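quick q for whoever's on today - can somebody do inverse folding on this one?? i tried earlier but teh output was garbage lol. tokens:
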């Protein structure tokens, strides 16, 4: 669908509202409550457009027109490969819709969040910038614009962590900024190598030239550089070391976005590498991803089991969950790829909800801490929060009939299809560890009586802060019971991705 201006809305509406919220903060200084609701409105409108675009692509793909299910907008009317272009196929529209929903839920949580940093005039504009640039990473059709959106997303998230109420937030932000600068250097070197080789930055045009089978030396170097960038962005072992500190010290609404959807930018980039750009190198890349995925599953799961902080536990858990996704990608067959994408979507909703619920509990003690020894019994007076956390934990562990079970079932089917019995056995065995650490924290927070180390519980109730995680957990239940639509949608996306020329022709026209 050429030149559809709707694809601009999920990116630029949040960015526009980021500017509007700055004006609202100057007019209304009463804890910036009005600013938060304006930000929520802007994010909700952007989410609505992202869902509309996903629905359009879905309906067109169901009608059998795979190329028509790639929506394109050429900024300035420039004909590709020149100029900036947005290219939205089923894969990018799925990731964008998933991210938009989570970002909106994060802002909804922030509306009633009691953290001091949420009242700062810059908080909501930065949050909206992070959300808009995140969607831009999925929608862009050229690699330099990807760099621009990545940098805007990184800078927004770094400042949001730096202004956190946690006294270690500034240190964690500086650490990540240094690591991100290294990733940026890799990305710029990769962009320079591709442009020096092919004289274009358009994804479709680069893919067209790479399909000839020619591999100049700089193109091979670009493969390594881009792979390193996306592994850093996904916090994949051994590029993970920045993540626990950065995510744990972030304000809860920010953490709920960082650990659930921001890390998926790297996953999205890896999928583009093996299905669109470097298809001839895909077999080698997939072997590396499968190995890193298995290591990440065990490292993340064991780290989550041994950590001292509930938010840090869920940050380590992200290592393991990304590992499952990488294993699915590495198995390199359509069923496993379907499982990996379903896992990415379901994990986003589960992890975001669980982080918010930990935030609800930690905000109800006088120390406002998520350290395990201080939250023992703190959640006991709030049984509804306990039920939501239990459902989220069971979904994360893959217990039926929740959406996490559908994710793991799809991955297991992919492993059986490829006869990767060792990797499949290791993944399933490591997945059992998830059940251990989520059960442990559930019992500790919601079943155990407060002890001598427990922080004093505030007298006031949980208020409205559990509403956002309630909506996400409800979505997890629905996607588990009614899983067929998501499976069918992702199946269409994988079918579209299987032929890179569908993407190329949609952007460049008939070849």
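ok took a stab at it. sequence:
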């Amino acid at each position: 669908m050429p030149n559809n201006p709707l694809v601009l809305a999920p990116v630029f509406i949040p960015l526009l509202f980021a500017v509007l919220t700055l004006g609202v903060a100057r007019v209304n200084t009463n804890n910036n409550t009005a600013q938060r609701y304006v930000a929520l409105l802007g994010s909700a409108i952007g989410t609505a457009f992202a869902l509309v675009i996903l629905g359009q692509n879905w309906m067109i793909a169901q009608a059998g027109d795979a190329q028509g299910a790639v929506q394109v907008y050429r900024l300035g009317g420039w004909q590709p490969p020149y100029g900036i272009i947005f290219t939205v196929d089923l894969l990018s529209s799925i990731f964008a819709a998933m991210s938009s929903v989570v970002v909106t839920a994060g802002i909804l949580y922030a509306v009633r969040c009691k953290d001091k940093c949420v009242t700062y005039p810059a908080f909501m504009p930065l949050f909206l910038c992070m959300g808009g640039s995140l969607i831009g990473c999925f929608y862009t059709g050229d690699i330099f614009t990807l760099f621009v959106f990545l940098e805007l997303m990184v800078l927004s998230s770094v400042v949001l962590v730096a202004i956190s109420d946690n006294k270690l937030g500034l240190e964690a932000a500086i650490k990540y900024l240094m690591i991100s600068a290294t990733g940026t250097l890799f990305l710029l070197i990769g962009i320079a190598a591709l442009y020096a080789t092919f004289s274009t930055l358009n994804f479709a045009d680069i893919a067209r030239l790479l399909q000839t089978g020619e591999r100049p030396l700089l193109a091979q170097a670009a493969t390594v550089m881009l792979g390193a960038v996306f592994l850093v962005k996904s916090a994949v072992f051994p590029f993970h070391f920045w993540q626990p500190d950065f995510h744990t010290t972030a304000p809860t609404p920010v953490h709920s976005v960082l650990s659930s959807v921001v890390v998926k930018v790297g996953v999205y980039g890896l999928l583009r590498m093996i299905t669109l750009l470097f298809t001839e190198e895909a077999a080698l890349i997939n072997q590396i991803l499968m190995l890193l995925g298995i290591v990440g599953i065990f490292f993340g799961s064991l780290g989550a089991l041994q950590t001292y902080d509930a938010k840090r536990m869920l940050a380590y858990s992200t290592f393991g969950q990304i590992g499952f996704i990488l294993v699915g990608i590495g198995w390199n067959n359509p069923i496993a790829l379907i499982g990996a994408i379903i896992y990415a979507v379901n994990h986003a909703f589960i992890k975001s909800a669980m982080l918010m619920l930990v935030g609800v509990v930690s905000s109800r003690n006088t120390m406002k801490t998520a350290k395990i020894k201080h939250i023992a019994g703190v959640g006991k007076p709030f049984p509804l929060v306990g039920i939501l956390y239990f459902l989220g934990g069971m979904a994360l562990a893959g217990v039926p009939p929740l959406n996490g079970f559908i994710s793991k079932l799809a991955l297991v089917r992919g492993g059986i299809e490829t006869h990767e019995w060792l990797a499949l056995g290791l993944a399933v065995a490591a997945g059992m560890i998830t059940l251990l650490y989520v059960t442990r924290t559930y019992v500790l927070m919601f079943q155990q009586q407060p002890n001598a180390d427990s922080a004093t519980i505030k007298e006031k109730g949980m208020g409205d802060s559990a509403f956002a995680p309630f909506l996400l957990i409800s979505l997890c239940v629905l996607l588990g019971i009614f899983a067929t639509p998501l499976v069918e949608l992702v199946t269409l996306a994988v079918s579209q991705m299987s032929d890179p020329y569908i993407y190329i022709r949609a952007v460049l026209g008939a070849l």
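fwiw The first helix runs from residue 9 to 27. also The longest strand covers residues 71-74. so keep that in mind when u check it
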